[in-house]
Amino acid sequence: MTATARRGIKRVGHKGADALAPGNTRASFEAAVEAGVDMIEFDLLRRRDGRIVLAHDPEDARRRHPLTLDEGLDLLAGDRYASVELDADLKHRGFEREVVEALRSRGLLERSFISSMHTESLARVGELAPGVPRGWSVPRVRRDYTQRRWALPAYAVARYLRARLPGRAGKMLAAGRCEAVVAHWMLVSAQLVRAVHAAGGELYVWTVDDRRRLERLVELGADAVITNDPRLFGGLPQVVS
């Protein structure tokens, strides 16, 4: 077993606990806390009316009444969530200042991690909030294509990206453009783990809903795993801060 596996893994709830309650909602965040997560990941986007809301994509925002940025952060700033870290995932560019200021005004920056598929957003966050860890999320996609009818093409593309990612990740981290790589599980390899750690970064892996895959990632040396069902973490060593 690797040293990383022995010291534990950060347990991250995707959209809270999307397998247990609709994601990015109060119920989902509550379920994540009940399951004992170390971090809650939530999605942020700006709607056409200008409001920033907790939603994964425009379709998600349209089919329900999502929490606004202020409503979501007011909830997560409560005592119930005081021991949980936060991963604010920016789904597109252009509202970095609003997010940083909203987190800062509630005293949440010190326990926040800001991730995005857009390197421009990460650069802007670095300007606005030096010291707040940033995660470069890869690949840049709108959804997890392995779950749909185009899964076979997605696997072919993933093999190509998997071979290139260790070098790209090492350069991003070494240049100070992010502090962590947030990679889809199909892109994770031993070479990626080594490259990320050699550059002084952390590796987060999304979205893992299979216990055996989760255990393999722990053995491989991932620092954090993101799942829709935090119950899968039961019995695994907890991260040591």
Give a structural overview.
This protein is an alpha/beta fold and 241 residues long. The protein has one domain: Phosphatidylinositol (PI) phosphodiesterase (TIM Barrel, Alpha-Beta Barrel), CATH 3.20.20. Helices cover 37% and strands 19% of the residues. It has an 8-stranded parallel beta barrel with strand order 1-2-4-5-6-7-8-9, surrounded by 5 helices. Strand 4, helix 5 and strand 5 form a beta-alpha-beta unit. Helix 7 runs parallel beside helix 8. The longest helix is centred in the C-terminal third of the chain and has 24 residues. The protein is globular.
Features:
241 residues, alpha/beta, TIM Barrel, 9 helices, disordered N terminus
Concise description?
The protein is 37% helix and 19% strand. It has helices at 3-7, 26-34, 58-62, 69-76, 96-105, 119-128, 151-174, 190-198, 211-220; strands spanning 10-14, 39-46, 52-53, 85-90, 112-116, 134-138, 180-184, 202-206, 224-227.
The 3D shape can be described as globular
Main beta sheet: strand number and arrangement?
Answer: 8 strands, parallel, barrel
Chain-averaged pLDDT: 92
- Main-sheet strand order equals 1-2-4-5-6-7-8-9
The gyration radius over C-alpha positions equals 17 Å
Number of domains: 1
Q: CATH superfamily, please?
A: Phosphatidylinositol (PI) phosphodiesterase
Instruction: Please mark out the parts with pLDDT under 50 across 5 or more consecutive residues, or reply none.
Output: 1-6
Structural class, judged by helices and strands? alpha/beta
The CATH topology corresponds to TIM Barrel
Q: Work out the helicity level.
A: 25-40%
Overall strand count: 9
Count helical runs: 9
CATH class: Alpha Beta
CATH architecture: Alpha-Beta Barrel
Order of helices and strands: HEHEEHHEHEHEHEHEHE
